[in-house]
Design a protein that fits this description.
The chain is mostly helical. The protein has one domain (about 5-545). It is about 80% helix and about 0% strand. It contains 20 helices and no strands. Helix 13 (about 350-360) packs antiparallel against helix 19. The longest helix has about 35 residues, at about 35-70. The chain is globular, with a radius of gyration of 23 Å. The two termini are about 20 Å apart.
């Protein structure tokens, strides 16, 4: 299967999943708001399983599974024993850690928050008891999915989250039907009932469970089978664990930075007590989560799909010692990722407030969220670069180098976050944190390129820099064109069409976004950038048919 076709299959699943994820986020914002104390309590609790999962396995699985499973194909049984033992270890590990972390919910909530009153901590902890079991199913989903990816079956892994979102949306609909909407936080955090907590957080966990379990269906279709196997010696698990150690260290360091940043962001809610102007809203943890969802949309659709497809191929080239072909794959992936990331960055900066208005019903909250989005997407291109280069290192079974440039990024982020927490007022605190993150990722990206060049040689003859400059130039022209159209439509002030209603905001995003994309593609065609033709080829063939 070609890289383009594999990427499109994954991207199609991701697009649909992200569309449902956006709908889910819109429903959640309508239900409990974005700049409310209840939203922040749920935001912290629902993020906890992701954070703990990231520490114990998130990147470890990506770093070791695909290369190791590719190599395990050479075993007499085609790698079946190896896969069975890996999955058994994962089930035992994730099951044990899920129980321990769920018991430790109060401690985890207090670790990720700062300056919260007792009632809000109690609500967040109650949510956490329901959300933390997601940890087990995230681990199971990643294990099952990475095995499919290693066998070049990319679709199921990217389409399974669709079921997750469907289940969560149905659960949220049931919540709204029973308890109604409260986007401005009229209900006190002390008045939440056990039934409300169970419906909101329980449906979120059920969605993750379905996301994982559905992959067993695709395993069966591929002829894969699984039986618990506790004979963990003799099939080469040692190299995988050794490779994983650096990645585990990297993830622990990353989460330390996340704890500091989330704690600083959570302290911003103290400023809400002193607000006297209804035209102003203060962003905190929930707004940061929604901004991250918006940020991750282009990254998930483009970067993850492209990088996942290239990752398997780079792993094969690494195993065959074809390092020049591996570097060519890396450059090709980076060029395509850069083209899409630069376009997405431009569109999201121009349309930050209309996009945010889709998620929240009040203009002040939309403005607060939009400011965070702008600060965050500045780091989209370097973030995507780092993601792809990490996969190249992982395919070469080098997890030590990513640890080095990630530790430096986290160090910059922690220092910057603490400075923001001390010197920046609550109104701009989350915006400041997002800018710090973008800046630290830019540093990380530069270090990643330098260290890769030092270890494995240069990537081409400056072609990536040249083509990236073309992307940025085209984006400036397209962004100016889109901004002009947005102003011609009335801008984004109070009562403007672009932020008046959800429907008008969607129409604005579609209209202005379409113009930005057309101008961007046209300029790149004039500059004779080959990625445009490659990307548009499937669309052209479809239209011809």
């Amino acid at each position: 299967m070609s890289i383009v076709r594999s990427s499109l299959i994954m991207a199609s699943g991701t697009v649909f999943s992200r569309f449902l994820g956006i709908l889910r986020a819109i429903l959640l914002a309508a239900t409990i708001g974005v700049t409310t104390n209840a939203a922040d309590a749920f935001g912290v609790a629902n993020q906890l399983p992701n954070n703990v999962y990231a520490i114990i396995a998130g990147g470890v699985l990506n770093a070791v599974l695909v290369p190791q499973i590719v190599r395990a194909r050479a075993h007499l049984d085609g790698g079946k024993a190896y896969i069975g033992r890996l999955l058994t270890i994962a089930i035992v590990t994730f099951g044990s850690i899920t129980i321990l972390t769920t018991i430790s919910a109060p401690l985890l909530v207090s670790l990720y928050t700062s300056g919260w009153e007792a009632d809000q901590l109690v609500l967040a902890t109650a949510f956490a008891y329901w959300c933390l079991p997601q940890l087990f199913f995230y681990g199971l989903y990643s294990m099952l999915g990475e095995v499919l990816n290693a066998k070049s079956k990319f679709g199921p892994y990217m389409w399974a989250p669709v079921l997750n979102n469907i289940v969560a949306i149905v659960g949220m609909g049931a919540f709204i039907w029973q308890f109604g909407l409260d986007p401005t936080g009229q209900q006190s955090v002390a008045d939440w009932t056990q039934a409300q907590i169970a419906w909101l957080a329980g449906s979120a966990t059920m969605g993750v469970a379905f996301q994982a379990l559905i992959l067993f269906v695709f395993w069966k279709k591929m002829g894969l089978s699984f039986k618990l196997n506790f004979s963990w010696r003799g099939v080469g698990l040692g190299p995988a664990m050794k490779t994983a150690s650096w990645t585990l260290g990297m993830l622990i360091v990353t989460q330390i930075g996340g704890i500091v940043q989330t704690a600083v962001a959570s302290s911003a809610i103290e400023g809400r007590e002193f607000l006297v102007d209804d035209s102003v809203a203060i962003a905190s943890v929930a707004a940061m989560s929604v901004a991250w969802l918006i940020f991750m949309l282009p990254h998930s659709v483009a970067t993850v799909s492209i990088a996942t497809a290239y990752f398997t191929r780079m792993s094969i080239h690494a195993m065959e010692k074809k390092f020049e072909e591996l570097k060519k794959d890396l450059v090709d992936g980076l060029r395509t990722i850069a083209m899409i990331s630069v376009l997405a960055t431009t569109a999201l900066i121009v349309l930050a407030y209309p996009v945010s208005r889709v998620f929240v019903g009040e203009l002040p909250s939309a403005i607060a969220l939009g400011n965070v989005v702008i600060a965050m997407v500045v780091g989209l291109l370097p973030f995507s670069y780092v993601f792809m280069i990490q996969r190249a290192f992982y395919s070469l079974e080098d997890t030590r180098t990513p640890f080095i440039f990630t530790v430096i990024q986290v160090g910059v982020n922690i220092v910057g976050s603490l400075i923001v927490g001390i010197y920046v007022e609550d109104l701009w605190m989350v915006v400041g944190l997002s800018l710090v993150t973008s800046g630290s990722i830019l540093v990380q990206s530069g270090l990643a390129f330098i260290l890769f060049k030092r270890k494995f040689g240069a990537l081409g003859h400056g072609e990536l820099s040249i083509v990236t400059a073309k992307f940025v130039g085209a984006a400036l022209v397209a962004g100016a064109s889109g901004y002009g159209l947005l102003q011609a439509m009335g801008g984004v002030g109070a009562g403007a069409f672009a932020v008046q209603t959800v429907i008008s905001s969607v129409l604005t995003c579609l209209t202005v976004g379409f113009e930005i994309a057309i101008v961007y593609i046209a300029v790149l065609k004039l500059l004779k950038v080959q990625e445009v033709s490659i990307l548009l080829a499937p669309v052209v063939r479809l239209l011809r048919r």
